[in-house]
Design goal:
By secondary structure, the chain is of the alpha/beta class. It folds into two domains: 242 residues, Type I PLP-dependent aspartate aminotransferase-like (Major domain) (Aspartate Aminotransferase, domain 2), CATH 3.40.640.10; 122 residues, Aspartate Aminotransferase, domain 1. Helices cover 40% and strands 12% of the residues. Strands 1-9-8-5-4-2-3 form a seven-stranded mixed beta sheet, with helices on both faces. A three-stranded antiparallel beta sheet has the order 7-6-10, with no helix packed on it. α2 runs antiparallel to α10. The longest helix is centred in the last third of the chain and has 19 residues. The protein is globular, with a radius of gyration of 21 Å.
């Protein structure tokens, strides 16, 4: 059915910058540099500057960013990485794809991000990294987790695929972990026209290792020198082919200008929802030191499935973002984590419901959603 209020409207977002996006794509095509051109390094510099970070290394997805970060840190077989079960499968599959073992810990009520106490209790001699997820756009307890990682000589690798533009203690996400990983899939704050990602770090040597791993294990300068007389191969590591392409970088350079406005719109819509819904559902929290980026607006409600059906009948799209949690998914049955292992994540998975939010919507549509939700709850209970 045609939704009165959709979760996403990529065409509407595109039309706002259509002329500039089209020009950026044509610039790449006209240049003839479809590979190893100027757009990727230019975007990396601009993205790092946007965050106030030292180095950005682009990839072809958020999952690739996580995997490349772990590889560059030397994490592999026999190592453990602490993370959470209430995330996209890419968070955990990245750990497994480098040969390491994932160790799930529960999350804290409110932010639904990694519990510091649970992470501390999970550290063993095999732990090489802590990998928190900034769920839905709310930062994890990064100051505390960074101190915990530093005290134990391990890495803090932040999954910030949902939190571009968030802040913690006045500092932007991207400047707090050893490596921060982003996604530029079309539905994210900064969305490509296909897929993309980035790793951000203050460590120049680590950035260079990630850049080589993402691109065949060679220095980028050797690839860019390819011409009538290509240089000899010089592989310094076993690299992947998980780098960003020139067209995605060119488009993202255009759209980067809209990120702050997009977050302001999301935060305004979140405030509208909070005002309308606070008395009838559990609304998202924003801890005092945090600035939520609201990639998702996720409420918790009783009789969730009935409420969702009622919302669909009223033409309102909703999402079950990362539910059920990963430890209850068939793919990870081999890990033996039954229901009851992570009660906070499980309670959330049973009750969460994502509402439409974002710059593709008008304020009037937020009002429509709020009214429909009130009617849906009344009908479902």
């Amino acid at each position: 059915m045609m939704m009165r209020v959709p979760l996403y409207d990529h065409a509407r977002i595109y039309r706002r910058r259509k002329a500039e996006i089209d020009a950026a794509i044509l610039r790449v095509l006209d240049s003839g540099e479809l590979d190893w051109g100027d757009e990727v390094p230019s975007f990396e510099n601009e993205f790092a500057a946007f965050l106030g970070a030292s180095h950005a290394v682009t990839t072809n997805s958020g999952t690739a960013s996580l995997k490349i970060a772990l590889l560059a840190l030397g994490i592999g077989c026999g190592d453990e990485v602490i993370t959470v079960p209430n995330s996209d499968i890419g968070t955990v599959s990245a750990i497994h794809h480098v040969g390491a073992a994932s160790v799930w810990v529960d999350v804290e009520r409110g932010s639904m991000c990694m519990s510091y106490d649970a992470a501390r209790a999970a550290i063993t001699p095999r732990t090489r990294a802590i990998l928190p997820v900034d769920l839905y756009g709310h930062p994890a307890a990064l100051f505390e987790l960074r101190a915990l990682a530093d005290a134990n000589g391990i890495a803090l690798v932040e999954d910030a695929c949902l939190s571009l533009g968030a802040r913690l203690g006045g500092r932007p996400i991207g400047t707090l972990a050893h490596v921060t990983c982003f996604s530029f899939s079309p539905s994210k704050h900064l969305g490509s026209i296909g897929s993309g990602g980035a790793c951000v770090t203050a460590d120049a040597a680590l950035a260079e290792r990630m850049r080589k791993i993402a691109a065949y294990g060679q220095d980028r300068a050797r690839h860019r020198a390819i011409g009538a007389t290509p240089p000899p191969l010089h592989h310094e590591t076993e690299g992947l082919n998980e780098r960003m392409d020139e067209i995605q970088a060119a488009v993202l350079r255009v759209k980067l200008a809209d990120v702050q406005d997009s977050i302001a719109i999301r935060r305004g819509q979140a405030a509208m929802y909070a005002s309308a819904l606070d008395s009838i559902v559990e609304i998202p929290v924003e801890f005092p030191a945090a600035r939520h980026a609201y990639r998702n607006y996720v409420i918790h409600v009783d009789a969730r499935d009935r409420v969702r059906d009622e919302m669909t009948a009223r033409g309102i799209a909703t999402a079950l973002s990362y539910a059920p949690p990963l430890h209850l998914q068939p793919v990870y049955a081999w890990k033996g984590c039954a229901r009851g292992a992570f009660p906070v994540a499980e309670r959330s998975g049973d009750r969460l419901l994502g509402l439409p939010i974002g710059p593709h919507l008008e304020d009037a549509q937020i009002t429509i959603v709020s009214g429909a939700l009130r009617a849906a709850i009344a009908a479902a209970t």
